[in-house]
Design brief:
Layout lengths: L8 H9 L3 E3 L9 E6 L8 E4 L10 H9 L4 E5 L6 H14 L5 E6 L1 H12 L6 E7 L22 H9 L10 H14 L4 H12 L14 E6 L7 H10 L4 E5 L6 H4 L1 H12 L9 H5 L21 E2 L11
């Protein structure tokens, strides 16, 4: 049975009007990047979204629609089967070359946030990342305590892997309806991933690996964290904030694992607050505080500047498992 979001007019309109592209950049033609690319093609430094372990490029459809309508070029990608972080970084670099994108702003969630950081680290000598927007971010895969089993995921049947991931999703009885709807939509997306895709993503999120954050502190960073019960542990959230002392920190009191689905207006606002100073646009005091968003004038993403740090609200405590 499809989720409410999958059946919504908003999502159906998105799927009927925005083309999902397939791009092969590896010698292995089974490694297919799938992506949406919306907004003005003249923009040379777009925002690129990397989904969490359980998601596809579709999970950011609300950001694609909203931000592109304001003149931003926005891409959302679903990465193919890669078994190591280095292999992913090489493939993603080739994808950017194929798309003729010299630099990008990266927005990643959970595993996507980790891979965004590792890509920025891997390309620091020849920078390809203009800034980082990290949603529910962690800096060390060992928080999930799965490193011992990571070499064996490729042997596990797809149904078992899906059930392992679903264990990180709380019962509908424990969450608000909008958060339950977001989980249902992510389950829809999870069902579209093959055994190899699930196994490779679990391997990437579990193989012992840490971000060399000292090599990224020159980058503008925004940390977007939902503070109700999520799969991100309090320890992991605090460590990410400690590792990026210069970052703008955006705390949402509620939002669950996927605030880009449950709190899209606030998520879009924080993305614009992050990006607009790099365009030479000012940020209003109400946006800086995290109040209701004001109308944002259409303007393409063209230049790079650094934002200043800020913190927006705080609240509860999360709990943990890979999603």
């Amino acid at each position: 049975m499809q989720s409410n979001i999958s059946k919504s007019e908003e999502y159906l309109a998105f799927r009927s009007t925005v083309a999902l592209k397939s791009v092969i950049v590896d010698h292995d033609d089974t490694k297919v990047w799938r992506l949406y690319d919306v907004g003005p093609r003249s923009v040379s430094c777009p925002i690129v979204f990397l989904p969490p372990l359980s998601g596809t490029a579709d999970v950011f459809f609300r950001q694609l629609l909203s931000l592109s309508s304001r003149g931003y070029r926005v891409l959302s990608v679903s990465y193919p089967v890669y078994w190591s972080v280095q292999e992913f970084c090489e493939g993603f670099r080739r994808l950017l070359d194929e798309l003729r994108l010299d630099k990008v702003h990266l927005f990643g969630s959970f595993l996507g946030a980790f891979l965004a950081q590792k890509f920025a680290e891997a390309t620091r000598q020849s920078p390809r990342v203009a800034s980082l927007l990290l949603c529910q971010a962690f800096v060390d895969t060992r928080i999930y305590k799965k490193t011992a089993v990571s070499p064996f995921y490729w042997l596990v049947p797809g149904l078992v892997l899906k059930n392992m991931i679903l264990q990180g999703f709380p019962s509908h009885d424990c969450v608000r309806p909008d958060i339950a709807n977001s989980f249902d939509f992510m389950v829809d997306q999870l069902s579209q991933l093959s055994q190899a895709e699930l196994a490779s993503r679990l391997t990437l999120s579990s193989t012992g690996c840490r971000v060399a954050v000292d090599k990224l502190r020159h980058l503008p960073v925004t940390l977007l964290q939902a503070l109700d019960a999520t799969a991100l542990t309090e320890q992991a959230r605090a460590e990410a904030e400690r590792c990026y002392p210069h970052a703008r920190v955006a705390h949402l009191k509620t939002g669950g694992n996927f605030p880009f689905l449950t709190r899209p207006d606030e998520t879009d606002m924080f993305i614009q607050v992050h990006v607009r100073p790099m365009l030479g646009h000012s940020v209003s005091p109400r946006e800086e505080r995290g109040d209701e968003p004001e109308p944002v004038p259409d303007s393409p993403v063209t230049t790079d500047q650094r934002p200043t740090g800020a913190s927006v609200t705080t609240d509860q405590r999360p709990t943990g498992a890979p999603v």
